[in-house]
Amino acid sequence: MDNQEQKHKRRVRYKGTHPKTYKEKYKELQPEKYPETVAKVIQKGSTPVGMHISICVKEILDFLQIKPGQTGLDATLGYGGHTLEMMKCLKSQGHMYALDVDPIEIVKTRERLEGLGFGSDILTILQLNFADIDQVAGKAGAFDFVLADLGVSSMQIDNPDRGFSYKKEGPLDLRLNPEKGISAAERLRTISKEELMGMLIDNSDEPYAEEISHGIISEIKKGKEISTTTKLQQIIGDALEFVPADQRKEAIKKSCQRTFQALRIDVNSEFEVLYQFLEKLPDVLTKGGRVAILTFHSGEDRLVKKSFKQLFRDGVYSEIATEVIRPSAEECNINSRARSTKMRWAIKA
Ligand SMILES: C[S@@+](CC[C@H](N)C(=O)[O-])C[C@H]1O[C@@H](n2cnc3c(N)ncnc32)[C@H](O)[C@@H]1O
């Protein structure tokens, strides 16, 4: 090694006045203060950080046919975009219930909707899993309309502290409610290779399930922690070393997406709670009550389709969507997160 190389020191990172953390970095996190920034980000086809753009709003409202005086349930409040549009249809008459398991975002959404004039006279927000819709109906009575917009919100994905995205360094958590259950990092600590492979295949059809599981379990066996999003991304990258160089980058990206999705489904028991929700749905709907569900991957859509079809055959639903409804090309251009959306609906007999 020559002298010069020995002397070389890593450049000290300029701290200056640049924003350092996620919270300091994005003006979009204060939409009231910077409306032009928010409008510009949306115009460019992106979702402003700290916001969620609601999907298929027109299709949902066209189907639900909400009338003043009705009682409705938004099973997945999120940013409250759909809740807001549904409440507008009530024209100050009737009531809207809204659920979310996320204790962090629910507080912000409640505050935002109250600020827009939608308080407890028209809206009841509950931190509850939609698997327990029977509990809400027990108090509220049956619903004339129900919406479920499954999965995660943009705010959850964009917040590195939540660990939902492999693109951002953060703790490997992936819980919708970080106060309950175990994080994805903890889950990986004790899982067997076979179970992990099954999870990757069942939850997201991962073609490299064997290689990725081998990579993860080898690391754990060496006594190493997989506690961050980027560490998991690196292991997936290493596991896919054998993919031809010209295809590797894309293959790693797709496998990261699928692996994170599979882990998220697992730590939040997403299939189990969706199954319970679908089972309880008919009992919480009024006669003629309408339900619309937005799904984002084939596993979810399969469950919804199967339940609606079976209950239609049994005469519990009088009508169901014969074909899945997709967001328009225009909507997908404005909001890339809409591209995988499928909407299905049913009407209670
Ligand atoms: C796609 S976002 C909903 C966005 C919302 N429709 C809007 O317009 O802003 C999904 C939300 O559902 C919540 N969620 C997911 N599974 C849930 C469950 N089992 N029970 C209650 N909320 C759930 C997530 O925490 C997230 O906030």
Question: How would you describe this structure to a colleague?
Answer:
By secondary structure, the chain is an alpha/beta fold. The chain folds into three domains: 16-44, no CATH class; 57-154 and 271-348, Rossmann fold; 159-268, Putative methyltransferase TM0872, insert domain (DNA polymerase, domain 1, Orthogonal Bundle), CATH 1.10.150. The protein has 16 helices and seven strands. It has a seven-stranded mixed beta sheet with strand order 3-2-1-4-5-7-6, with helices on both faces. Helix 5 (81-90) links the parallel strand 1 and strand 2. Helix 10 (193-204) packs antiparallel against helix 11 (209-221), helix 11 packs across helix 12 (229-239) and helix 14 packs parallel to helix 15 (298-313). The protein is globular. It starts with a helix and ends with a strand. Mean pLDDT is 91; it is low at 1-5 and 11-19. Residues 52, 54, 76, 78-82, 99-102, 105, 129-131, 149, 151-153, 176, 273 line the site of S-adenosylmethionine.
